[in-house]
Amino acid sequence: MKRLLYIIIGILLLSCSKQGDEAERMNHQLQKLQAQNKAYIPFTSDSIAKQLTKYYDTHGTTNEQATAHYLLGCVYRDLGEVPHATDCMLTAIECADTTKSDCDYNLLSTIYGQLAELYHNQLLLTNEIHARSLSAKYAAKANSPFYVAYEHVNIANAYILLNKTDSAELLLKQSKKWFLTHGYTQDALSASKSLIHIYTNEQKNYSETKKLIDEFEALSNWFDANHNLPPHKRFFYYYKGSYYLHCQQLDSAEYYFRKMSHKEMSYTTKDAMYKGLLEVYQNKRNADSVLKYSQLYCNANDSSIAKRDHESTAQIAALFNYNHYKHEAIGYEAMANKYKWLLNISVPVSMIIIFLIILKYRKAKETKQHLKAEYANLSSEYNKNLETLQLLKESHQSAITAIEQENEGLKARIEGLRKHNVIKEQVSISKTIAETDIVKRINDILNHPKAKMSDEDWLSLSDMIGEYYPSLLHDLNRIPKITQQEMRTCILLCLSLRESDIAVLLETSTQRITNVKSSLNSKLFKDNSARTLFKNLTSQYDIYTL
Question: 0.85 cut: is pTM over it?
Fold first, then answer.
């Protein structure tokens, strides 16, 4: 017995030693991935990063957990799996504990910055602005004013895309001033370029535009010895050409628009170049060239739109695939954790099992008798169940008849309840609603597939529901972030319409209506089922069918 105890203790000590080695190995791998990320070396596999997240989620500090999930997000970013990368960045943010004194604010600022880049690439500009604001906030807490100004420039660029140029202009001027004050000339010129973009697109402040262009050409390190820009930087010539176009210096404008050209032009650059040349020849009244560049501009614009549509489709497909594989991955992860747990304890558990087998050996005969008795009992129960099943099959028809009779009784009871003053009043309201002009209009639309609900129809329907069910409309308007589709679905349910009819009126699918009902039920009654929504509406707001 003592010998067995010594063996178990030895195994446990060996296990502790292995855990120490594993901690050192994981720390080395974490530092290696951090160095690779800082060196801008693209990741090609997620295997090591996934091992790090699993290890540090159990053994690491909050900063280590945040770092591991951030690096996993960077891996998926390089692999082009944007939804997965976004999910990892959000998990990394959740791991960080800002209430602790040792919270790594630099890391948190970096994570929000990378998350903002992911949002930017998906054109989720409002989300990008929120993420960059938090990146700037934590950069300030980390005493990194450079990154505060840097993120403000990025926020301004997002505002430009949202056409909020006043806010963008204010941020850009503030950031440029800070960069120049602290000697970051090239970063200040980045802010200047965004200001030039605003003034050029809005065709204003041309004197300021000229100053900014001259300043950029004098101080920027983009230009080579011959004062030419590299191919991928030549969009700047569009701003200069636009300035000369405004000044009616058409030859100079044409010269700079043509300087944008290079072999690997993006559709965006082509679009701008052809647009500029088209405007030049329109001012020159050169009909042949106007016709030529009108066609080239249209083609470039169409190609740009097609490329964006292709990218949007790819992003949607990636999101769909991610959600599909995420469910599978959760299952695989749970299975892997189970096997890992079994592996860690297999040796000591095996020793304990052997020990228990030795102790129970004397009871072997008794166990055999017990098994025989259990087998006999189970066999008897099984045969009884077979007989019961046969009886149920024979009485199946009688069960159907019983249910039909029960329904007849329920129907009679419902008709009786409708005569009660409380129910009768509400049913009368439902009848009155059914006779309103807007409900008749809806019935006409359902009978004519090509007809559609107009904005005036929806307004009339909402006013009518507000008149008869004001508390329902009041509660719906108090729900934060309720969508127009959810609001209209709930209103149509008050008319006792089928899901298929509601789908026709809202020009969507029945499955979507089912999902919307589930969401409404959750928001109104904390009930996630779509089937119980109308019952809950009846109970809470006295909405009855005819």
Answer: no
